[in-house]
Design a protein that fits this description.
alpha/beta, Uracil-DNA Glycosylase, subunit E, 5-stranded mixed beta sheet, 5 strands, globular
Length: 183
């Protein structure tokens, strides 16, 4: 979809899903909280204008150029993928229950065991804390592993996350990239 979704398309996207960008043996599987309505309406992860996932991925050095959300399948060529803790789209992540996040964490662990990425990067520390029952988790590497897969928590790239501007967000993505390249 090359145009912005209409109000009707956004409303119709509530509760729908966005397919994972996934393959076995990825270098990094990025995990969002859940698709927003804009992403669900377009069928592309992190698609809302103002979301800083794609710029941070590029500025941090994961990709040689800034990809658009409709190019998400190209991430597989870089050993990168995308999934979500909770599959259903909603207007805001705070509309998800703690039970949904915990169930999403269990489903995510099954996905990771099956596909075996080297790293799982969850974007959103609050959602990670709930999904994995790690109340003190902070942005950065985690002690927890899922089999051989190491975990990292990144800040939420949503434009609503005022705690991180693009430069600071890209620094956190670059910390992960450095860890991936040195492991």
């Amino acid at each position: 979809m090359s145009t912005r979704p209409s109000a009707q398309e956004l409303a119709a996207a509530d509760g729908t899903t966005v397919p994972d960008v996934l393959a076995p043996g990825l270098r990094v599987l990025f995990c969002g909280i859940n698709p927003g309505l804009y992403s669900a309406a377009t069928g592309h992860h992190f698609a809302r204008p103002g979301n800083r996932f794609w710029p941070a991925l590029h500025v941090s050095g994961f990709t040689s150029r800034q990809y658009r959300p409709d190019e998400q399948e190209s991430l597989l060529d870089h050993g990168l993928g995308i999934t979500n803790l909770v599959a259903r789209a909603s207007a805001r992540a705070d509309q998800l229950s703690a039970g949904e996040l915990r169930a999403g964490g269990a489903r995510l662990q099954d996905t990771v065991r099956r596909t075996r990425p080297a790293w799982l990067a969850v974007v959103g520390v609050t959602a990670y804390r709930t999904a994995f029952d790690e109340r003190r988790a902070a942005v950065g590497p985690q002690r927890r592993t899922i089999g051989p897969t190491r975990l990292w928590v990144l800040p939420n790239p949503s434009g609503l996350n005022a705690h991180y501007n693009l430069d600071r967000l890209a620094e956190e993505f670059a910390r992960l990239r450095n860890a991936v390249e040195s492991s």
